[in-house]
């Protein structure tokens, strides 16, 4: 085995330019795979982050409209112990309301939430365009549409009409921008105690919102299903982002499939390229193989020479490919910029994916070298000696 | 006769070799030959007479169509490819008309190859031995040169050193000096003779050169695939004709 490896090294070293071209070919294949794969992953991550990163990914609510979840802290504990992949569990009390101003009124969605816990989902602090989060009772933050269109200023007191026809005065402490106009137009966020007091729902919430670990975002449906089983309460309706965003999901799936297709075809062309080049090397080295066999080298060892060549080409091709791939990604994220100097697609380096691509290259090269390995096995030394 | 058979390191009986399936070429006809251990034998004959085919079969590189070849007590017809490879590696050394060295390796590495093929580890002692063989063929100063950087004569001498590496019982040579000038030819034959006398290696050498053949213990002439003459040196010409 050691001798076969040594011979493989010498064979490759004896035709340096050819070896370099093969390594370059494998390297380009691997780098395209890494580049396309990372780009699509980056694109998906940023798309998901933008669309569902700042919203509830699994929501537990009562099935029947108008009913509330009581004893919600006990349910929150149960949810938390149900699955370790669930995080940022936020109790939310939501109610429709009206904002009365100068004899006109506009609809509001009053959301009372545990603001500390909600920071994990909604990232409220960074969403604030001005002011601060509500801290005291009856304080509220509004979407920035209200600031622009209704001329409401920080510190203003607004009048909120509740479904119970009760009117409540609330102080605006700031404005947020969720980059989604539907939310900026209607949401009014206050702390949970305020909502519970003004809506007269002590110890009750309308829903419990939560997110899942970043890496498990596509398993939200399975996690929700498991949660449903663990909570074991038929009065609950558990929804997840996947069932709520089917068109987004099919778009993402389409993107993934096209990315896999590109990667598979790149891989096939690399494998075929290596196999044909290695098959030619057997022809080139058939004299040497014949001599080695005449001196008593067994067929299996000569096959191993070509498998070793495949392995070595795979290793160096993978290293070159990883280097090119990282270089390409770096160039792309440095030179392909939006007008605000942020990358067009935020590219993230996934070490596991990069190592996987390298590993695939090595395995492909080994598979490709099986053909010349078998071919060398059938070489008869006498044919080489006779045909000199 | 029994003693003779026991001393025979190569025993060939009723050997036929036919090439081709549709158009058959009968290359060797009913060859019966034996070679005693430690002897220096030469095979002569015209081009196409079948002498190289015979040597290749003695070297277990090719299999007979009919008949048997027993090398060092082993019938090559009954051996698997792997066992034939072992037999070639352990029992035989080859020197071909074209040196057949591996151009990717140095002279010393080429000499060490048969030993490495046997699967044993090359230690300092083995390396020294390989160097001694290179010294024997007067190439010690060139041991670390790639063989492509050696002259034709030097390459052929490296091939001889390589053939000796595994202490083969049999050394087969097919026109080892075919590509060399007469001075080099003379030197190489003297070298082979010395090896035969000192190491008791059995030699079977094909040569065109009758002058060289006459220096062997025994001369076998092949003509049209048959043994035309088989004489021991010192016997009068023709005495040994079968």
Looking at this protein, list some descriptive labels:
heterodimer; A: 388 residues; alpha+beta; 2 domains; 58% helix; B: 242 residues; alpha/beta; Rossmann fold; 6-stranded mixed sheet; 8 helices; globular
What does this structure look like?
The complex is a heterodimer of chains A (388) and B (242). Chain A has helices at 2-14, 16-52, 72-82, 115-122, 124-127, 144-149, 181-186, 192-198, 220-231, 241-244, 246-284, 286-294, 299-335, 351-368, 370-377, 381-386; strands at 58-62, 69-70, 86-101, 104-113, 128-131, 139-143, 157-161, 167-176, 187-191, 204-205, 207-212, 236-240. Helices cover 58% and strands 19% of the residues of chain A. Chain A is of the alpha+beta class. In chain B, helix 4 crosses helix 5 and helix 5 packs across helix 6. Chain B is globular and about 50 Å long. The two termini of chain B are 18 Å apart. Chain A binds chain B through residues 3, 7, 10-11, 13-14, 287-288, 291-301, 381-382, 385-386, 388, and chain B through 56, 59, 61-62, 81-82, 85-90, 94, 96, 98, 100-105, 113-114, 116-118, 162.
Q: Kindly, what is the distance between the CA atoms of the first and last residues of chain A, rounded to a whole number of angstroms?
A: 28 Å
Q: Can you name the CATH architecture of chain B?
A: 3-Layer(aba) Sandwich
Radius of gyration of chain B: 18 Å
Helix-strand makeup class of chain A:
alpha+beta
Going across the biggest sheet of chain B, name each strand in turn.
6-7-8-3-9-10
Count every beta strand of chain A, where a strand is a DSSP E run of 2 or more residues. Answer: 12
Strand content of chain B: 25-35%
Instruction: Describe the global form of chain A.
Output: elongated
Provide the helix percentage of chain B. 25-40%
Task: List the total number of helices of chain B.
Answer: 8
> Biggest interface between protein chains, with counts per chain?
A-B, 24 and 27 residues
| Mean pLDDT figure of chain A | 87
- Supply the CATH superfamily name of chain B: P-loop containing nucleotide triphosphate hydrolases
């Amino acid at each position: 085995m050691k001798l076969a490896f040594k011979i493989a090294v010498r064979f490759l070293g004896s035709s340096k330019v050819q070896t370099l071209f093969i390594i370059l070919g494998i390297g380009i294949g691997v780098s395209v795979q890494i580049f396309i794969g990372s780009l699509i992953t980056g694109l998906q991550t940023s798309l998901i982050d933008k669309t569902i990163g700042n919203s509830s990914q699994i929501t537990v609510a009562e099935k029947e409209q108008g009913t509330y979840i009581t004893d919600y802290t006990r349910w929150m504990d149960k949810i938390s112990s149900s699955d370790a992949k669930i995080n940022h569990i936020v109790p939310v009390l939501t109610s429709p309301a009206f904002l009365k101003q100068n004899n006109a009124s506009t609809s509001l969605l009053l959301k009372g939430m545990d603001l500390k816990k909600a920071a994990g989902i909604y990232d409220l602090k960074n969403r604030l365009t001005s002011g601060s989060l509500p801290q005291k009772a009856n304080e509220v933050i509004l979407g920035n549409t209200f600031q622009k269109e209704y001329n409401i200023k920080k510190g203003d007191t607004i009048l909120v009409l509740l479904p119970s026809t009760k009117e409540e005065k609330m102080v605006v402490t700031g404005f947020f921008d969720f980059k989604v106009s539907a939310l900026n137009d209607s949401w009014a966020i206050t702390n949970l105690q305020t909502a519970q007091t003004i809506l007269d729902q002590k110890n009750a919430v309308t829903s419990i919102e939560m997110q899942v670990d970043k890496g498990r975002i596509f398993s939200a449906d399975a996690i929700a299903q498991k949660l449903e089983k663990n909570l074991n309460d038929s009065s609950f309706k558990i929804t997840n982002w996947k069932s709520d965003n089917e068109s987004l999901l099919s778009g993402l799936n389409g993107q993934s499939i096209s990315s896999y297709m590109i990667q598979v075809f790149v891989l096939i062309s690399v494998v075929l390229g290596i196999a044909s080049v290695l098959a030619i090397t057997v022809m080139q080295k058939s004299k040497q193989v014949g001599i080695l066999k005449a001196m008593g080298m067994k067929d299996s060892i000569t096959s191993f020479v070509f498998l070793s060549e495949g392995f070595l080409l795979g290793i160096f091709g993978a290293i070159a490919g990883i280097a090119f791939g990282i270089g390409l990604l770096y160039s792309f994220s440095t030179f392909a910029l939006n007008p605000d100097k942020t990358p067009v697609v935020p590219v993230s380096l996934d070490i596991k994916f990069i190592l996987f691509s390298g590993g695939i290259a090595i395995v492909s090269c080994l598979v490709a070298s099986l053909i010349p390995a078998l071919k060398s096995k059938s070489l008869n030394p006498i044919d080489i000696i006779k045909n000199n | 006769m029994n003693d003779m058979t026991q001393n025979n390191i190569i025993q060939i009986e009723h050997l036929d070799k036919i090439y081709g399936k549709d158009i058959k070429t009968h290359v060797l006809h009913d060859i019966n030959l034996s070679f005693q251990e430690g002897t220096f034998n030469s095979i002569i004959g015209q081009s196409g007479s079948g002498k190289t085919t015979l040597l290749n079969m003695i070297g277990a590189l090719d299999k007979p169509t009919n008949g048997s070849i027993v090398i060092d007590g082993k019938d090559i017809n009954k051996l698997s490819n792997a066992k034939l490879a072992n037999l070639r590696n352990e029992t035989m050394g080859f020197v071909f008309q074209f040196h057949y060295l591996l151009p990717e390796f140095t002279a010393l590495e080429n000499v060490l190859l048969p030993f490495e093929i046997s699967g044993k580890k090359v230690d300092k002692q083995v390396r020294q031995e390989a160097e001694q063989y290179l010294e024997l063929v007067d190439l010690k100063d060139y041991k670390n040169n790639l063989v492509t950087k050696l002259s034709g004569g030097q390459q052929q001498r490296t091939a001889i050193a390589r053939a000796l590496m595994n202490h083969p019982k049999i050394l087969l040579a097919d026109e080892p000096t075919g590509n060399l000038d007469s001075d080099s030819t003379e030197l190489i034959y003297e070298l082979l003779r010395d090896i035969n006398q000192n190491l008791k290696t059995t030699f079977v050498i094909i040569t065109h050169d009758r002058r060289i053949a006459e220096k062997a213990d025994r001369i076998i002439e092949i003509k049209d695939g048959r043994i035309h003459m088989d004489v021991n040196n010192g016997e009068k010409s023709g005495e040994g004709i079968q």
